[in-house]
Amino acid sequence: MTQFWAALTLQAGYNAALVAIGAALLGLAAGVAGSFVMLRKRSLVSDAVAHAALPGIVLAFMVMVALGGEGRSLLGLLLGAALSGGAGLLVMSWLTTRTRLAEDAAIGAVLGVFFGAGIVLLTVVQTMRAGRQAGLEDFLLGATAGMLREDAILIALGGAVVLALCWLLRRPMTLVAFDPGHAATLGYNTRAIDLAIMGLAMAVTIIGLKLVGLVLIVALLIIPPVAARFWTDRAGVMVWIAGGIGGAGAYLGAAISASAPDLPTGPVIVLVLAAGFALSMLLAPKRGIVSAAWRYLRLRRQFQQGA
Amino acid sequence: MTPLPHHSPLAVHGLSVTYGDKPAVRAVDANFPRAALSAIIGPNGAGKSTFLKACLGIVAPLSGEVAFFGQPIAQARARVAYVPQRASVDWDFPTTVLDVVQMGQYRRAGLWGRLSGAARTQAMGCLERVGMAEFASRQIGQLSGGQQQRVFLARALAQEAELYLLDEPFAGVDAATEHAIMDVLRGLRAEGKSVIAVHHDLATVEDYFDHVFLINVDRIAEGPVKTTFTAQNLNAAYGGRLVASTPTTLIQAAE
Hints:
The complex is a heterodimer.
Chain A lengths: L1 H7 L5 H26 L3 H24 L7 H25 L4 H25 L1 H4 L5 H4 L7 H20 L1 H9 L1 H6 L4 H18 L9 H13 L5 H25 L5 H19 L5 H18 L1
Helix pairs in contact in A: 1-13, 2-8, 2-11, 2-12, 2-13, 3-4, 3-5, 3-11, 3-12, 4-5, 4-11, 8-11, 9-11, 12-13, 12-14, 13-14
Chain B lengths: L9 E10 L2 E11 L4 E5 L6 H9 L6 E5 L5 H4 L3 E4 L13 H7 L2 H4 L7 H13 L15 H14 L4 E5 L7 H16 L3 E5 L6 H4 L2 E6 L1 E7 H4 L2 H8 L2 H5 L2 H7 L1
Parallel strand pairs in B: 3-7, 3-8, 5-6, 6-7
Antiparallel strand pairs in B: 1-2, 1-4, 8-9
Helix pairs in contact in B: 3-6, 5-6, 6-7
């Protein structure tokens, strides 16, 4: 317990403090950006884009090794992730607009194929000498043990850019999420705005690779806004509640995993967020299950007394 | 080719749209009058909604020219307001009635401009016009279908346009809402504004509209209701199905 308290107050060592701060910033950015993804009903698309980043990471590693480099340059790996995630997004939108495939089928196809290709490439790389120590598999579920100051700075800077863009684009993104046809007649470029929403989700995926990994990042994007949805009926308010839930949940999750060193950070954060979701679903005053049941019972009693 | 007329709020020449390899709208010409209520009429799947969306550039036309007040849509957006089908959005979206109406003001506010108190007052005025002012702070999912339709109309009013395009404004609404909407549309006409609505109920066409445009993929007929809304044109548009599927009173009304 003292260990947990120490982690919660950033007294559990340098690495633990870095991880906790990085996680909080990532959770905040993910909750805010994820709100627009959720409002636009693109949750699964963002999951597929995140999975589609894997082959790009491994290919970037191979290219850097082939060019005589060490292959572990974080910037290079993240660039590869962005490129193949973007390619996955393009293939998905091509499949849905140019063929008769429904969006869910296109999502499934892209997620499976890109992730499968990434795993094959990863296996190949691990038979290479340079690849064995590269720790590329850490990008799947995140690994915080080796987190550096630069990683935390990357999350802080990237998160700040994501938040600023969300604030600037909040109206167009809300408009397109609610009624894209009407937004188009107002003169907004709905394709560009859709691209911006997915681009923000991808940016969160990339800055979160080291901490949470690409398999679970969708949880950070989507659980906070769906939890926040229980507390408010206004999109503008929901976005900030989601950011708060995401930031607080990620911080708490990081502290828990720091006080029990065998627990992986990313998955623990996801479980903490899930607990936040469950509490919101039960206890939120207007839309929560408990208050709805309470109102129902009161109403029933009124009717019974009236009869 | 002669340029499309400037005096018309919406003029269309040779507009074609396809979904896949199936034509939805084929080489359609149209010319809607100013300061009038116009109805777009045709059977299900006749391309009525598609025609509107293609005019507005929401779906990409295969070919054809569209002019709003003699200009392409990109230059006329501030003068045109669109009311989509109610079913086209998710009404559980976290937003209030007033927020939705203010979405009609985003364009004037600029991308990041603040919505002033005056804008809010104007939005409330629009809600007043459709009889929904008391619902301003409600979440939109708590409204009935007719109330939702009125909110959509209020959003269009907030755009302060000169031409209003409505896609099935009376679909699934109660009689009170239908009256309220018609009052607003007639008010717009009295102000010299133009209204074009996709309309389903043949029984009310003569009562509600001045001008009618009949479409069934191809343009069937267009003109004043008095001369164009005839049994012959309706049969051409509905391909005989009308006679079999509608009450006789309706056919009498059409004759």
